[in-house]
Amino acid sequence: MSAVGATNGSRVLTKADFQSPVETRWCPGCGDYAILAAVQGFLPELGIPPERTVFISGIGCAGRFSYYMNTYGMHGIHGRAPALATGLAAARGDLSVWVVSGDGDALSIGGNHLIHALRRDVPVKILLFNNRIYGLTKGQASPTSELGKVTKSTPFGSADAPFNPISLALGAGATFVARTLDTDKQHLPAMLRAAAAHPGAALIEIYQNCPVFNDGAFDALSDKQTRDANVIALEHGEPIRFGAERELGVVRGTDGSLRVAAVASVGEDALVIHDAHRDDPSLAFALSRLADVEGSATPIGIFRAAPREAPSAGLAAELSAARASFGSAGLERLLNAGDTWSVGG
Amino acid sequence: MRFAGDSGDGMQLVGGRFTDATASLGNDLATLPNFPAEIRAPAGTLAGVSSFQIHFAARDIVTPGDTPNVLIAMNPAALKANIGDLERGATIIANEDAFTQRNLAKAGYADNPLDDGSLEGFVLRRIPMNTLSQRAVEGMADVSARDALRAKNLFALGLLSWLYDRPTSVTEGWIEKRFAARKPVLEANLAAFRAGWAFGETTELIDVQFRVPAAHDMPPGTYRTVNGTTATSLGLVAASVSSGLQLVFASYPITPASELLHELARYREAGVRTIQAEDEIAAAGMALGAAFGGALGVTATSGPGMDLKAETIGLAVMLELPMVIIDVQRAGPSTGMPTKTEQSDLLMALYGRHGESPLPIVCACTPAQCFDAALEAVRIAVRYRTPVILLSDLFLANSSEPWRIPDVSTLPAIDPDFASANGHEPFEAYARNADGARPWAVPGTPGLEHRIGGIEKSQPSGGISYEPENHQAMTDQRRRRIAGIEVPPLHVDADPDADLLVLGWGSSWGTLRAAVRRLREGGHPIAHAHFYNLNPLPANTAEVLGRFRRVLVAEMNDGQLVRVLRAEFGREIDSYAVTQGRPLLAAEMEREMLKRL
Q: Of B58, B113, B498, B540, whose CA is between 20 and 30 Å from B351?
């Protein structure tokens, strides 16, 4: 796919500008290839040149992502990419900062950094590759592995309930939360576009196939035969419906909970209209739990995009200006502040 | 002298006020605050005793003093907790009102020590401070009995200010400013302070008044009083100004390092960005992320926080980015004694990371010298593209002394020397300069896009490499680059015929110097040298050690520097190593040195 270049001054950016010369090495068939291609294909349209773009990754298969981008990049330590990115964003308000992480990296060892980056609404875009397994360490259960999942580390089935990353992010106060699929060549760039346009922290959960340790985990969502029945495509301002004939819809029950009903029996007017922009995250949260509702399906799309004026927005620029005017005279003033006395010589 | 009372009695406050008044007189001084870990320990108990010691003189002072000449005991627990530090003949000023049956029992006294003769040999002055403070506000309509009682620390301060002839204007000005919004409290405090002064002047209970004239042997200049926390903070700001780098300081609250965050958070005018991170790990990560962006990334912590930062420091070693990690050491292991001082993180700073990951270590030796130590840490970090650990400690952080304010134009220049396109396509991120340092190429610079990470690098490209020879070469490179760092020579203060060299590092400087003075006064030749740079050690260290028949290393740990020196130089070295959570005392060091003469 050749990207349509956006102009940056006189410079036309193309996909090639974002491709590093390093040979890409993931397992054959890994979903990461598709995500990499989508990201490299999308970035030119932002008009931000590679030198002002930074990818910071953690540890795991997804961690290699930064090496394959011809931007500035840092392959950090396990789980800490959001912390590294927070420091970078604090120092530099002029960069486009992206974090690439996996389900083990972001939700297990790095859970604390993830939730705090979201609550701070740090202007970074977090791509969470969720394959529901530990790949690089060769197949242990991850914090998103399903209950009962048999893996090398859980030969009798996983006894631990999985995280729902969307619910977790919303609970942490995330202002932008979306979900997409590695192989969806239209939907994935659309989510990247929306995240890039969001001023604060944005989290995109990307369902990513691991062909070696958890192959086919998302086939039901990506397969042409089954996806209409299993995927609810969320569209802001649209009634929430799905099914091969779009015959099913989401309605609010008398107890306030969301449930699935046949559109024919409840009528189109009864369907819940998706509102991603509302300040109150409760609808987004309820939607994030839909996959657990009987007869329901897995929502993809933007759950929440509710930008807010972050208290620290513009702080980097403000401090940079303060520093410029402080200088030696300011330092002299600061050193001599308070009660001083002179000893004659 | 030492103010001691319950932690709710405001002892740190009056200590600070007395310090300011003393500084304004031009006395040299050194202070030693000491407080419990509990925020509100049960009132009146030994656990709740808080104290503030100040040593001041008309001559150059180097320690807060071993044994106070005057102890102000605001309650029985304060007396009990501190009496052991006094020598016979010392003056005890006791708040008689607080020596009630109930308070005596809380402190574990069966009989009242003010009455039972157990204080014989001390000069005891019993003063009913509660009563006198309350009487001072009689007739003031707005002042409650509670406010009057709470002002008893100001009564004590007034009395001591009279005893040592401190100026009242400094303290009165402070009271008026501090309590401007609370008129009744202002009035109560002012009245109590003045009553304390008047009490000293008019009663015959205290029959001497001391006059300590301005210190005569301090170098000319403008001075202010600083503790190590302020000096470190100012040093970092100075480094930011002289390098032109934005200071990004990230830390997680921990005693006693939190004070650095509090201090730096106020310096927005200097463009300082502070972040209270979610944990110690994140704080280190944020500092390193900022460094990647071309800022001066600094994190600070104490004891347990260093354990957590080790992983990120290792990454910084691999990334070869400038970064400063400040460890305000406290007594360990584990939670240990968070409000007590120690020097027990040296070996951790040297070796506490997996793999071969050498880095430079700088230490601060006096509260005011923290300023220079911070600048030195930044200088090394930036020039050699490396994380630097700056070892301070709780004593330095909290202790105050006069600081000769440096002339800004004399501060060392620090050149970040950011990379510009070096003609190589693609950019070589691990090319080397004469120091062995790699280019600092910051995002935003066209043509220098590069990827770095924790995986072993090859040089000069900076690409990933698992080649056996490459890993060896990189290990050698990292070792040589750190070992080759230029640091100032070890300065020796030696008598011509000295046999014994006393060596120390960090905050023991003052104590060792005081002990050395005492020995000299007694006619004993002696030599003292102190380390400011612990990795690499000064180039002349071997030569210095070789000049003395005996070498003694004194430190507040279980013998860490001595281990390094023995291993490095293969010679016999004596060790005096103690972990009691307090600074070494000049008297004990004098004894240890005498033993070895």
A: B540
